[in-house]
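Hello forum,

I keep getting stuck at the same step: I have a sequence, I want structure tokens, and every attempt I make locally crashes halfway through. Rather than fight my setup again tonight, could one of you with a working pipeline run this one for me? It's a single chain of 547 residues.
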Amino acid sequence: MHYGAMSWDTLAPPAHTPWAADSTQPLPLAANTGGLSGIEESINNVFAPIEEFASGLIFGEVTVFGISFPVVVAWLIVAAAIFTAYFGLIQFGKFRLALRIARGQYTRDDEPGEITHFQALSSALSGTVGLGNIAGVGVAMVIGGPGATFWMIIAGLLGMCTKFVECTLGVKYREIHEDGTVSGGPMYYLRKGMAERFPNGFGRAAGKAMAVGASVFLLFFALAGGNMFQANQTFAQVQSVTGGDTGIFGGDGAALIFGLVLAGVVALVIIGGIKSIASVTEKLVPAMGIMYVLACLAVILANIGEVPGAVNAIISGAFNPQGVAGGVVGVMIVGFQRAAFSNEAGVGSAPIAHAAVKTKHPVTEGFVALLEPFVDTVIICTMSALTVVIANTQLWRDGMATVQAGGDAPDGVTVTSASFETVLPWFPYVLTIAVILFAVSTMITWAYYGQKAWTFLFGKSAVSEISYKAVYCLLVVVGTVLTLGPVLSFADAVLFATAFINIIGLYFLMPIVKREMKDYLARLRSGEIVRITGKESGGEQTITTKD
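Reply #2:
Ran it on my machine without issues. Output:
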């Protein structure tokens, strides 16, 4: 049986970025003429060998039963499984409590922090929910068949516990500044947590080195992958649906004007900091999610008679030794890969947003954060997969046959979009709107992530923060005009290099999280912490519960 289709190259460009199109043929927007073309070529030539080395190192493959897959996938999934066992399946036992905390039922408005639990959740989700949920799932369905959906769900459920661990630490070791703003994330909990866990020279030195490494990697990705790539692909999609090179966005200077407008929109949001970002994402993320789920439901309901067969195909395909990707192990890896690269559990980015939450108890935000992979992977990615399986388009079937024969997977976004078009012929226009919304939400969230990495490295001051925001907005324009493929691929590599650093820290610090968890749950049981069920005439009506 041919296993070559399971190599990482099959999913190039990397399918791990949740906002990426996960396409085998990304939309190019190279500067075609003049000095810009020369600049782009020079930058690409410099970064190409660097990117090749870094990608080979970070996404290096191991082979199991003849199937090759990136080490980083195993690193993330194994960590999620270990955390799940160590914390006693906390993501299942306390799911209802997590929902209540997200709704603000255990936190008062006067607790330290900047944003509510729901706003923190929305901000973090805006950085993960994106085109990867659409196109990345399309690729996974072609390579892994329906059975990949089952393993994608399993990996998403495991990843919930990783988010619980890292976001609890994000709040516990955050810094609240004199102006009331908050800074947190892996750079803070690695430096402080390691020094606390090992109060000696090793703990301080290791923590500082890990914190600096995480900051540098996250900053680079924020400027390139979380910014320039988004701008580039947004303009590409808009240009594509408006006539391509001969349309209204095909003329000289169109990319520059689009980039300036997009930079202005981003600037208006990020100038206000996390409060401004949160106020946008708490409206934008639910709207995006609802719009997409409704589109999925339209396809599913139009083919309601096919649902039992689709569910059966997903379950049987998960354990079918003749699966498209080469048996049970192959299908499992495809599903795990899609989930791990979609929800970013373990990468260390989400704790930066969650650290700004209003709470006195760090573990409360850990509970809220575990909802993130559930929404991103278990709900949205699964809805995409169901849509592809139920629509059962000829393009999907042909794609699976091509991969089975040793060929390349078709464009991921095309596979998923074709499934929607069976019921919604105008879906490409909806997809364009989705691309813009996903990209803008990702850009503003990663602007904040990058700012916190920047201020950790260069200090927090008005001049430092303004300088960062100016650079960030400038690169929005650059990303729209130039396609710097090697730069963006290098950014992908350094983002997941952060996962190696971050998870090592999580292993060392998980006893601290367990202590926080036990203390909080004991206070809940004793009635010391009460549930806020409503407000009356300026006062709070509360009841005690045993969750």
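The chain is about 70% helix and 5% strand. If your local run keeps crashing, start a new thread with the error log.
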